[in-house]
Amino acid sequence: MDKDAFIEQVRNKLIVSCQALPDEPLYGAQIMARMAVAAQIGGASAIRANSPADIQAIKAAVDLPVIGLYKQGDTGIYITPTHEAILAVIAAGCDVVALDATLRPRPSEASLQTLFETIHAQGKLILADVSTFEEGQNAQALGADFVAPTLSGYTEYTPKLDGPDFELIARLAAELNIPTIAEGRIHTPAQARQALDSGALAVVVGSAITRPRLITKSFVDALL
Ligand SMILES: CC(=O)N[C@H](C=O)[C@@H](O)[C@H](O)[C@H](O)COP(=O)(O)O
């Protein structure tokens, strides 16, 4: 899928992140594929998914573009950090590759520039997951197709907010030339609406739709 087609597919729409790690109760490619089917029936415009196995199962189950990533651990730079991880999610069939584009020291010798080049050489689109405006600027300069504030609140130098980082969404959307896809702690339909009103092209919602353990906990906590 080319960039214009992807933009038209997701414009002003919801993208559902269907992810469960091995320590989560819904872990398993077939379970994530059913989550994706539910998301498609509900009206999602695209799916965000982690790992080659999940991406492959989701691609077989739904007729939607997939933003693929491959988490390697859960500290430091863990979202699609290497060429191998990129090639694995592309081989699994994703349309867009999401990767950590923060300015932190990288775990392998691969620079962000060469990782971007690998994605484009395979004819796929780049979604740069960042935590600050400067990281978004850097990703744009290196050739990213899309930017998302996915990592705001997850780097040691960004504030830990309870809700979405609307300020960063608005600044990325206003000051960069590439589209911003809002993501991270969007927990309600009103927040999703606000993200679009802040200038985002589309909105990714994960936990609030596909992590029932966390959804349950939010209700339980409200009753304490
Ligand atoms: C920080 C990090 O590793 N974020 C991951 C990125 O793919 C996922 O664990 C999140 O679920 C996703 O970003 C969607 O966000 P939320 O689940 O808050 O709607």
The span between the termini is 48 Å
What is the CATH superfamily label? Aldolase class I
Supply the number of structural domains. 1
Uncertain stretches: none
CATH architecture: Alpha-Beta Barrel
- Portion of residues in beta strands equals 15-25%
The whole-number mean of residue pLDDT values reads 97
Q: What is the overall number of helices? A: 10
Give the SSE string: HEHEHEHEHEHEHEHEHH
Organism: Phototrophicus methaneseepsis
Family: Belongs to the NanE family.
EC number: 5.1.3.9
Pfam family, one: NanE
Topology readout:
Blueprint: H1 3-10, E1 14-18, H2 29-42, E2 46-50, H3 52-61, E3 66-69, H4 83-91, E4 96-100, H5 112-121, E5 125-129, H6 133-141, E6 146-148, H7 166-175, E7 181-183, H8 189-197, E8 202-205, H9 207-210, H10 212-222
Parallel strand pairs: 1-2, 1-8, 2-3, 3-4, 4-5, 5-6, 7-8
Helix pairs in contact: 2-3, 4-5
Give your account of this protein's structure.
The chain is an alpha/beta fold and 224 residues long. It has helices at residues 3-10, 29-42, 52-61, 83-91, 112-121, 133-141, 166-175, 189-197, 207-210, 212-222, and strands spanning 14-18, 46-50, 66-69, 96-100, 125-129, 146-148, 181-183, 202-205. The protein has an eight-stranded parallel sheet with strand order 6-5-4-3-2-1-8-7. The protein is globular. It starts with a helix and ends with a helix. N-acetylmannosamine-6-phosphate (LRY) binds next to strand 8 and helix 9.
